[in-house]
Amino acid sequence: MEIVHIYSKLRSEFGRQCQFSDRPAELLLDIPPDPSLTLNFIHKSPRDQAVQACREMSEHQVNSERFETGSCGINHVEGGWPKDINPTEMEQTIRFRKKVEKDESYINSVLQLGSVMEHCIRQNNVMDIYQEYFEDEEEVEEIQEPPSARTISIFRDPNEVKRTVTSLSWHPDGGRKLAVAYSCLEFQKSSKDLSLDSYIWDVENPNRPEMMLKPASPLVCLDYNPKDSHTLAGGSYNGQIAFWDTRRGSQPVEFSSVEHSHRDPVYKIIWLQSKTGTDAFSASTDGQVLWWDVRKLSEPTERLVLDPNREGNLDRALGAISLEFEATMPTKFMVGTEQGLVVSCNRKAKTPAEKIVCMYDGHHGPIYALQRNPFFPKNFLTVGDWTARIWSEDIKESSIMWTKYQMSYLTDACWSPVRPSVFFTVKMDGMLDVWDILFKQSDPTLSLKVCDKALYSLRVQDNGRLVACGSQLGEATLLEICTRLSTLQKNEKSLLAAMFERETKREKILEARQREIRLKERSRSEQSKEEEAGHEEREEDPEQLIARAERNFFSLVEMEEKDVCEEEDVKDKAQSGAPQ
Fold this sequence. Notes:
Distance between the termini: 116 Å
Shape: extended
Largest sheet: 4 strands, antiparallel
Radius of gyration: 38 Å
Structural class: alpha+beta
């Protein structure tokens, strides 16, 4: 038996009935345009983002065997560079070579060594050095270890109120020490109990910091001097630049005045290559890049305003949040901005307008990391929003390679100093990702959960083996990467160079295609504008149409009057009996 119950309700309990009616449109609010606001308008170019909604399909590829080549050289134990010559300085080595080549003993030594080398070459030509004696035996492939990393130690903020690790810097001599800058970058989250100190840690002793740095304002960035391991430069939250000499204690030796410093926090400071080793430059979100001599920090030696219109207007300047300088390119530097633009600059330009060379636009948000590849300086890495992108200086419209969008925000990245195809990224979910683009481009080769809170900073030691990650909880975690990810692989440089060249050519072809499409659309729009202009010319002004109508009307009236006069003349003649 089916039980049914009906709920009933009176119409009056539903409330007032809605009555809809048609009425003409009426103007509720009219806001007239303000011409003065156009001066503050910053043009934002649109960004295209492809969305793939179909199912993922597997792809299979078959490649023929690759012919591997190798390069060999001969090292001699005699001679070498003198003690007063630095082999890494190109000018000194060229000057020394020219001096040696003019010596008479140099020519005699070359002739003597030539006879010895000729004898060795003849010996090699006697036998077939390329003969394969074990063709039938199968080659035993080396078993490579899977990518891995292990935590060595954790350096924790010793204060009760924990602060974010905003910057890390390795000691230039072997990486025995790690300088860590602590600051709170959250808006209006700092308190009176918040400590201002930053620390230098000994890698072997994570229990207590080796040295304390006492700035006047919390440090946002910190960097060791590569030429003098006892000196450091730091950028503060209030915009000041501070300089430390560890031999003189925890207090800064000198710091810049507030009047001539940045107006916002200093997010990056980098030492420059100079003879004195005392030059550095800094970037801040106030839209300025300032150059300093740490021996005299009373005022900057040079200043650049990042105005996209190249007019030096600080009100329209782009906020700088990352900075890149390559020692092999002493006149060039790059700035990553809050607006997602990478600004390429030339320091030696004559006018401020010429100092901003070009811009690269590709991120939806601030660019938190910017670094050139140490082996291929023309290619650089950027991190912003949810992706990491690899760029080429020759392509300004788009990056040549990029990662897929991650689920968490990326906060920092850097290249491996020993492997050209490996780079590291950290994210807001506490993950460290290691990417090997020769092995796999779609996903990281190794993903490691470092901590439960967000990671904000990252720095790799010069040997590529140790990686330091700074977290929101004030923890600097030291990780050791496996040998596979920290040792240069066979033919890695040539393979990566071919990959970069191939991707650059592909982007150039796509860019040329897009340029053709834009030109066609422009020509079509111009043609349509011309047709509209011709149509408007054909359509006369209403006043002209009225004047023409009046002229036509009066001409018709005159013609009618003439006809009437002629008819009356004919009637008069007919009545008088005159022949018609």
